[in-house]
Amino acid sequence: MGERPREFRLSYGHPLANGLVFAGLGRHPNSTHYHDSSLYKNAGTLTAMDPPTDWVWNSYLGRWALDFDGISKYVLLGASSIVGDWSFSCYYDWLPVADTWYTLLGSVRNEGGADRPCALRKSSTTSYFYIMFSDYSGLYWTVSALGLAGKHHIAVTKLGTSHTVFFDGVPMAPQTSDKTVNWSYALQIGIQKTTSQLYPFLGQISDPFIHNRALSPAEIQQLADPSNVMLSGLILSPKRRIFSVAGGAANRRRRLLICGAA
Question: Using CA atoms, how far apart are residues 86 and 79, in angstroms rounded to an integer?
Answer without folding.
Answer: 14
